[in-house]
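User: Hi! I'm a student and our assignment asks us to look at how structure tokens line up with a sequence. Could you show me two examples?

Assistant: Happy to help. In each example below, the sequence comes first and the structure tokens follow. Example one:
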Amino acid sequence: MTTRTGPGPRERLLDAAKELTYQQGVGVGVDALLKAANVARRSLYEHFGGKDGLITEVLRLSAAEDEAAYQRAMQAAGDDPRRRLLAVFDRLGDVIAEPDFRGCRYLGAELALADPGHPGHDVIRRYREHVHDLLEGELRALDHPRPSHAADQLLLLIDGTLAVGAVRPETHPAAAARQLAERILDD
């Protein structure tokens, strides 16, 4: 009996799709995904039902990872809700500075997925709701007078930071967004 030591076709497809859809966008071809994963076309359909299912699963897994990264950044900042919220923008500055940073995976996917019924849109909507709820919870702990509205504003700053970070990182968008976030928190 042989023991499998490497990742199976499903994991290889997910890894390849996570990388290629971030580098090239969700419009990356199926053949490129299959080649990068070193799997047969049949594996794509067996495990995900097709490319749309694979993209949706990549978005779901990435969203869980990114939510956890926000939570870790906030927890590392201590107990003060203000510091925890501002730590999000410090984290974004670190993310933008990474050499392989290509912008926000979710903004890119939303713009590229032309079919409004694509299941990836639901995954992205839920991801944004979770991040909004995370921000709103900290704003409530801060006794902000309009926590939901302020969370909307912070989420807009996050989106803008990631978009500008992809095209003009030399402008230090995370630092600028952090200053604007401070004003929202002081509201």
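Example two works the same way, sequence first and then tokens:
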Amino acid sequence: MATSLTDTTTLHNGVKMPWFGLGVFKVKEGSEVIESVRAALKHGYRAIDTAAVYQNEEGVGKAIKESGVPREEIFITSKVWNSDQGYESTLQAYETSLKKLGLDYLDLYLIHWPGKNKFKETWKALEKLYKDGRVRAIGVSNFKIHHLEELLKDCEIKPMVNQVEFHPHLTQKDLLAYCQKEGIQLEAWSPLKQGQLVNDPVLTEIGKKYGKSAVQVILRWDLQNKVVTIPKSIKEQRIIDNANIFDFELTAEDMETIDGLNKDERVGSDPDVMMVGFTD
């Protein structure tokens, strides 16, 4: 069980990935993202998650440089966007992301959404980047079980990570069990349901027992489910508070109560219908 911000899970290829990090979805390019990432790194975060479509890779790269934290101590994730799917275009998208970030390599590169029919070709490009030593780990995002089964039929390298929407209203029990069985690390995006769960009465009540907020309860629940989590914030105090979850443990009963909040309700798109940016 993770006991500090620097604790890691070991991916199936032996690479160590922090259990906890900062997401920068919808964080504006420029000073907003630079300050957010710098604050996180200053307070001990060692994982930053961005994506080409977030249009803030340059700011993330600047903040990493300015932080004074050695590059090899930071785990950086980016993602190939839908319109760049395909073999050659993915290789090109990777170069573009690296250039914007000002880095020589990424720690994790993900296919952002499965789409219809190109993800196998895209995956081949990720396998090449991995085999060439350009990226330390490769994975997918927003893949349901059927997408993973399809990919596993003929991939050479199994995805190391599947980053999906995961929170107490969308507990994805079957997907979590499937990924754990296959040795694919599940990672939660939007763990707070884009802020909708921060005042949830059940979570607030559980938090009172530990002197913690509903937010801290959710993030702790992620970790105890063995799910990597990357809450987003642009406020330094919130960034500190989000990470203050390593000094308590939820009981089995608390975990069950939180699981019981599930409604199979998404705040993001359903991966089976998300086709924004895809080109045939």
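Here is something you could point out in your write-up. Strands lie at 8-10, 16-18, 22-23, 47-49, 75-80, 108-111, 138-141, 161-165, 185-189, 228-229.
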